Amino acid sequence: MSKKSRPIRSARSGRADKRMTDPVVTEIVRNGVIAVTEEMKTNLMRTAYNIIIYEALDFTTGLFTPEGDTISIGIGLPMFIRGMSETVKAKIKHFGRDNIKPGDIYVTNDAYLTGSHLNHVTLTLPIFHQGTLVGFSCCMAHWLDIGGMLGGMSTDIFSEGLQIPIMKLHDRGVVNETLVDVIRQNVRLPSRAMGDLRAQVTAVKTGERRFLQLIERYGRDAVLGAITAIMDHAEAMARTRTRTIPDGVYEAESYMDDDGIEVGKPVPIRVRIVVKGDEMTVDLTNVSKQVRGFYNSGITTGYACAQVAYKCLTSPTDYPINDGSFRSLKVIVPPGRIVSATRPAPMRWWMTYPMTIVDTLFKALAPVIPDRVIAGHHADLLVASLHGINPKTSEFFIANFGPLGGGWGAKRSEDGISATVCINDGDTHNSPNEQAEAKFPLVVERYALVPDSGGAGRRRGGLGVERVVRARIPMTMNTQVERAHCKPWGLDSGLEGTGNQVALRQGGHWKTDFPNAKVLVASLKKDDAFLIRGGGGGGYGNPLERAIDEVVEDVRQGYVSIKAAAEHYGVVIDPETLAVDRVASERLRATRA
Asked: Which of 101, 125, 185, 391 is deepest in the core (most CB within 10 A)?
């Protein structure tokens, strides 16, 4: 098969024999593997050292078959749905089945394998039952620091930190202390890194223990047969729902602002979808070639873009998330694209472009399945990175303040969601202000929804969020926000939402005239501040068709201004009493129509 075309399939040879599979046990196992990966999540959160793990939930846990196919994942990052499986498979290939032993734990942060940046460290533990390999327990988590440069724009992987090839962290239960020493020597906050490493070991051992308990209770053959049946059912459901999409070829395009180096030069995102019967092909051949700035990601992220969109369209509520759901999906991703970058392309901000690729896949299918897609969303994590020396403790600190959240696009049947983290980070949370203020020398002056940020429509786009943060000591701030100019688009005559925005307050004056939303190095003095504003979601449908009472309620809630109510929705509201003038509104709407 050509390297350019790859079906996302799990092994088919183990198809379940329905005569031998107990449906009751199958349902118990279905919920059991979900419970295992959720407990892995819980134990990681309870033992991790960094706020980005235990509050923001920037991690993913999972169980995998002996071949490396996904059984269940505890989602923090949906975009890691492919990277973890491919990492497990690469470790199997690297060591060979005969050299995988009980008590081993394998580690890597190879960006071109995982598809993400070096901060994502992945641990994999083989699970044995009575000497037989029955699966793998895996955990990917974001380390706050992995070495490398702190600020500015990286242009190759070597400047981004410590690269850990596939290695044994534990060899038959014995810790590789040399590797631990190398890691400790190459990170700025070794106590935090070692704490998070131990937390990940706890998570994968939790997966091993609970999966073996499931096998002991119901029997190995019964559990493994149930897993095969669950995957087969997931495949059948995905194929059934794919058949509801009309056959055809669908295309769409959008743009990113720039790559952070060639400022103002848009980066094109062009996608092509082919639907034929019960199968879908996502072709990412015409997305931009890899860029000089650090917004690239590895090929497993290219596959994941297609998987996340396909899962949303065909089986969004089917659990556990497993590889059976993707047997009917084929993905074409030539090497050398922004989501299939090759060494030594920089990968530090890998997660940004894939969000818009998923958005654009929905956009392509909007004409034929308008009830199953959303308009464009703010599509960025909206994170600020800060570092400096805390004078109270004389200690160096690193803070990642975010993700912030923003507006999601409206659907045909309902308004977009406000103040929600972007699509490829799914279950991640916006960090509590109180946590950040307690741990770092910062003060949050404002944290609020942004009126009029959601695109107008029969269904309004979700609202963005803005946060103003004041520095209590001198520090350095970096932010790499995208989609300031490529605003979240509307669908079916809906209007676009506002773009993302960054501003600085230095010496009491706000600077807002940045060419994009990237401030790669900014020195903040005491009492200087920064603002990050998340964009709104695009609207759906003609704004003049929105119910007048809904517009009035939006104004009363502060979501829509009186000016915008008249300008976009044709609704006239008294600024003093907030009473609606229905006669004037109907007249205005008739004129606009």
From this structure: 125
